[in-house]
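Subject: Sanity check before I submit

Could someone independently write out the structure tokens for this chain? I want to compare against mine line by line before I put it in a report. The sequence has 80 residues.
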Amino acid sequence: MAKYTWVEKDTCIACGACGATAPDIYDYDDEGIAEVIYKSDCNRGNTAIPEDLYDDLDDASDGCPTDSIKIADEPFNKEG
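---
Independent answer below. Compare away.
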């Protein structure tokens, strides 16, 4: 089953934990707020994350102090 991820930017505190844990999935915008970058997803939550990155995905979510990282089995279809 595919997994999708999205960062709730309104609650992200730019701590850097997700980018350090899952640099292939998350990076930071110009304001230092995390966003999904995997395959140019642009934080829309539409790009399936491959199984070989699931551990990084789960570690990033578990390490987020504000629970801003969302993971689901269906696309989020956000506007970015």
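---
OP: Matches mine. For the report I'm noting this point. The first strand starts at residue 4 and ends at 7.
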